[in-house]
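testing teh design pipeline on a random one, pls ignore if ur not involved
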């Protein structure tokens, strides 16, 4: 048995997606003439209850576009110290947007309003950069797929707006949060100025992310997308999968969450694991070993057909998705349980 828990990005497109690709009506999207992309953008805006959306090649580009448009060069962006935008986007904040970062440790990856409140730079200080943006991550990947409570998002946005700053939500796994919490995407999307979500992870598309916001913002995002080389032509072939994803791949994320809970049972109570790990709320499991032997455990798991990642010497990450069966999850749980004895 082979169970690939390295990432939900390994998911392959469904039969329906392949058919939709074949049949997709296309046009030149840089001219705004791809009917399939236009339809996907309307659907994404609608599902998030916002005015407009933009199809982009990757989640990284989506985030970088959102920061670029909303954070002026030399301004300061507040983000969680293990956020994807800070850790895993190749220094794009410095290299592309040219902003300064203000890192904050969250609680279970979630920024706490009272912790960021004092960090907004006071206006009129000639020495200080302007605080332009706060970035939040839904779900919070490095904390183990934890969900930002809606009230926290509202409070962070209220604070930021009061201080003349904006809020961007890296919602790479927004729909995992939606399904797990029962809170509609439009509720999570309402308080923020921009958001993005990935089509290419649990939603199983081969390529693509959506940037969502109001009309003015999306117009600027379209320019930034072109600047970053993300203006595509007959990409309706890809957007066709996104339409299938938004129509029928959201509800099934619930299964991924169940599979994560099955695997998590193997970790519970192991004397080799630090007890303070975050029990999975969605499709990501991250736990820390007491000894710096994560690489070793990943190898032993791989020998038994269970693939996962070590994040550092202590931490292991496992991600469930469509292409892990329930049987696979039970097998992974069994093997992990044995190795953690
Ligand atoms: C995967 C991911 C991204 C970036 O998506 P890519 O399509 O891989 O560039 C951004 N943020 C989070 C939290 C992610 O997990």
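output:
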């Amino acid at each position: 048995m082979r169970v690939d828990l390295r990432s939900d990005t390994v998911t392959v497109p469904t039969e329906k997606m392949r058919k939709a690709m074949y049949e997709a009506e296309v046009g030149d999207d840089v001219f705004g003439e791809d009917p399939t992309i236009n339809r996907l953008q309307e659907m994404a805006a609608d599902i998030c209850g916002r005015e407009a959306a933009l199809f982009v090649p990757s989640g990284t580009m989506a985030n970088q576009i959102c920061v670029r448009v909303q954070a002026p060069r030399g301004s300061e962006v507040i983000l969680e110290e293990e956020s994807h935008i800070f850790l895993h986007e190749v220094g794009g904040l410095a290299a592309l947007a040219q902003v300064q970062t203000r890192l904050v440790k969250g609680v279970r990856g979630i920024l706490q309003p009272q912790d960021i409140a004092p960090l907004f730079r006071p206006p009129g200080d000639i020495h200080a950069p302007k605080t332009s943006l706060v970035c939040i991550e839904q779900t919070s990947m490095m904390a183990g797929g934890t969900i930002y409570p809606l009230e926290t998002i509202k409070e962070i946005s209220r604070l930021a707006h009061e201080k003349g700053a904006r809020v961007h939500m890296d919602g790479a796994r927004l729909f995992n949060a939606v399904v797990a919490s029962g809170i509609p995407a439009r509720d999570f999307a309402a308080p923020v100025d921009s958001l993005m979500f990935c089509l290419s992870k649990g939603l199983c598309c081969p390529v693509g992310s959506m940037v969502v916001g109001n009309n003015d913002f999306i117009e600027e995002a379209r320019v930034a997308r072109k600047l970053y080389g993300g203006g595509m032509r007959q990409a309706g072939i890809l957007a066709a999968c996104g339409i299938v994803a938004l129509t029928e791949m959201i509800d099934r994320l619930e299964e991924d969450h169940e599979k994560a809970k099955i695997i998590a049972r193997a970790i519970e109570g192991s004397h080799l694991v630090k007890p303070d790990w975050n029990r999975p709320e969605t499709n990501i499991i991250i736990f820390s070993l007491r000894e710096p032997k994560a690489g070793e455990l990943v190898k032993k798991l791989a020998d038994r057909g269970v693939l996962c990642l070590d994040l550092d010497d202590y931490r292991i990450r496992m991600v469930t998705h469509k292409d892990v069966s329930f049987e696979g999850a039970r097998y992974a749980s069994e093997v992990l349980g044995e190795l953690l004895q």
